[in-house]
Amino acid sequence: MKGRDSYYTVLISVLILVLVFNVIITATLYVHTKETISDYFDSNAKTAASYRLDALLLKVSSNVENKYKIKIPPVSSITILFSQYSQTGIKYLSLEKGGPALELNIPNWIFDYKEDIIKAYFYHEFMHFALCHLQKSRGYFVRDLNLEKEADKAALQFVDRDSMVYLINFSSWDQEEKAARIEAIIIPD
Ligand SMILES: [Zn+2]
What we know:
Elements: H1 2-68, E1 75-81, E2 89-93, E3 101-107, H2 115-130, H3 133-136, H4 145-155, H5 161-171, H6 175-186
Parallel strand pairs: 1-3
Antiparallel strand pairs: 2-3
Helix pairs in contact: 1-2, 2-4, 2-5, 4-6, 5-6
This protein binds zinc ion.
């Protein structure tokens, strides 16, 4: 009986060891897989966000092309700016500067808003091209209140007034400019 008892003790010990080992392996694999999966989804989320931005730009650009019967050059670079006071907007690169192409500097806060507001922003920017503001500004951002108002008004062909007012409210830190631009789109001609 003694020999049989120690046989069972060894067997049970081995089984317990196997069980513990299994738990450790499973836990390690679980943690590792979880990290790999979250890495995968993080990188995919970034890719999805940039695809969404590209698709949105393409849509806005082709709607403006159809309405104005013009050809809009491709957007060759998009820079997302994090400072509230950075110069944002759209620039036109002429043939001599490696164009024709458009360069967009987008404020990062725009992505906190829903798509209607982002669209309003892009339509405003593309209106600067359609209305020939960019071609005149020779590679610089448009910084003329009258041209800003023109672009806001023209953008209303594509987006609703509320989204435009909302956008202006958040996009301009100059209180006078903000008031003038909002007034221009609220009060009809
Ligand atoms: Zn503008």
